Fold each of these.
Amino acid sequence: MNKTALNEIDDFPSVRGRITENAPLGMNGWFKAGGTADVLFKPADIDDLVDFLRALPDGVPVQIFGVISNCIIRDGGVRGVTIRLPREFALVETEGTLVKAGALALDASVAREAADAGIEGLEFFSGIPGTIGGALRMNAGCYSTETKDVLTEATALDRQGNIHVLTPDDMGMAYRHTTTPEDYIFTGAVFQGRAGDPEEIKAHIQAIKERREESQPIRERTGGSTFANPSVTELSQAGLSTDTKVWQLIDQAGARGLKIGGAQMSEKHCNFMINTGAATAEDLENLGEEVRKRVAETHGIALRWEIKRIGELLT
Ligand SMILES: Cc1cc2nc3c(=O)[nH]c(=O)nc-3n(C[C@H](O)[C@H](O)[C@H](O)COP(=O)(O)OP(=O)(O)OC[C@H]3O[C@@H](n4cnc5c(N)ncnc54)[C@H](O)[C@@H]3O)c2cc1C
């Protein structure tokens, strides 16, 4: 697909927010690698975003990110318009045992605000370095709790700017996956916790922090888990114990520490890829594909990327 240039889009809507062409994208994400957004739009507020979506010609693709902690932005960049939500979407409020958060709120802020208000059950969010929008899209989770377990409802805008209020069932949330249409833009969510003791909740958050420091390369340029754990059926068919984790398959395939260009499978947690310095998005993707090949040869299992790869390859 050709690069999107503003002056080539007929009827490009006039907006109150900020439009930037060729805006850095991959370099602003956790991997610090990859291409730019052809057009980046930061709306002034929700009305500006709705008006923009209503007026944008149908053929122009729209993309949205949170803090890019789960994506490889390919080196050739992202076509169409990339939306960056404005700050009003980063608000978190509590009401009884409910927590209301905008889609740009960090998961960690949701965990912290909940703890301060004595709301238990959202501590797992403290271990996920993304935004609520990313958590809704990925059904993010850790230590046996997923976003869907605490979600009451989410709000989203469709490509035409219509607002939808969705329950977890509407969203078809499953392990690191939802069936919500790809072009929906989440704007916020409501989570249900339960009354708890703020000091105990904070101690739980601290324990999660220490556990992650020990087991994950969280100070590196990484994207979290590269591949999803295979299903019980896949593991049984491969003659493996059903509690086998994907990192064990990668380790057994000899890919711990494997390097391609500047990309490496972490020695600390071999399902995490890291940019050791000058990795391109292509290095990262090629490394992932090499790992998939080795695991397929060793175990006959086709690993599924958990990390999203978005944008165009460099031609
Ligand atoms: C060190 C580290 C540890 C991690 N640990 C975990 C973990 O334990 N558990 C876990 O689940 N994940 C983990 N991750 C992965 C990642 O943090 C989560 O998937 C997170 O939910 C992604 O949020 P984000 O804001 O960074 O999304 P992005 O990476 O920016 O985007 C991810 C996807 O969500 C979509 N998206 C983002 N915002 C919106 C929105 N408002 N509306 C619609 N779609 C949207 C994007 O289009 C993209 O498809 C880890 C990552 C790192 C770097």
Note: Residues 30, 64-71, 103, 127-131, 133-135, 137-138, 140-142, 185-186, 216, 218, 222-224, 308 surround flavin-adenine dinucleotide (CB under 6 Å).
Amino acid sequence: MRITEATLFHIAIPCTPFETSFGTIRIRPALIVCLKTDSGYVGYGESSLLYEPLSEREVVTDGVRMLSQKLSELIGTEVTDSDDILNTLEKDFPITTFAIEAAYTDLLAKQEKISLATYFGANRKTVLAGESIGLQGGIEGMLTEMKRYVDDGITRIKIKIKPGSDRELLEAARAAHPTIELGADANAAYAPSDLPLLQSLQEFNLTFIEQPFAAEDLESHRVLNEATPVCLDESVVDEASCKRSIELRACSMINIKPARIGSFRASKRIHDMCVEAGIGLFGGGRLETGVGKTMNVAFYALPGFTHASDITPPDQYLKRDIALPAFKIANGMYTLPDEVGSGISLDHETLEEFLVETISFTS
Ligand SMILES: [Mg+2]
């Protein structure tokens, strides 16, 4: 199977403002990679970069430049299922080059005529959906959103917190929903001196507090993890940081985002490491389009994902999604498609509407 055509679609879709302690996202850019082979298969991948750096240093301009170069080099090359592809990618730009590795993975599953989830080694048919609520609405907005999710069958809700917007939010959330699985995500907004406050939040019976401290501050996470289960997100960028976090007992859970790790292959090794160490897992989201989201959820069907994943349907935050079929959650669950590979195709009419540029290479 040889690559004969490579296309990069740079799109920008207006989205519902999503506020975290890092900043607010109003336009969701995406770089969609399509690789075609001489056997007629098409593989898709998404790079979920932003125009301005929030929590990461890669941005869209780097992504377009780097992907253009890499895609031109891929024309005429064989698709293999070894780690060779990873060695050709730029390790310092994981979110950018993840689009290529994902498209490769989609092609390999299609070549084997199996679904992406089966290719990853998953045998579940459904994936539990959790929801994440941003900081924009205050207590009232949060409770309204929460009620809507609970009515839709969602059983795990994660609330974004930051210094000054934490205790009251969690107290109100817990009072309104005494039995729901409740988590808090701080996106590294707290200092070690906030430990007593964070420890006290366990009175609201939190399933986890996600990444309260800076990515490199594993020691504060370790101390907090003794009082309340800590979930690491930004700290786990590769296999080495995962191993270090587990050895130091800095976490009880990890939020895996394959895009942040840079490949499904390395993410699978992190998954296996966590299973062996008894560390819980859930899958994260980066406000992807249906392309990235559908591929991620196939990965989140692996047995090590012990908790509901952040898999909000893209049409809930994007003006319109560009992937077909529409990504749907019913009764708090996503049902995996039976199609070979990712099962995704592009809605070209919608894609046209949000298109910024197209870059194509052929043999
Ligand atoms: Mg997070």
Note: The pocket of magnesium ion is lined by residues 185, 187, 210-211, 233, 255 (CB under 6 Å).
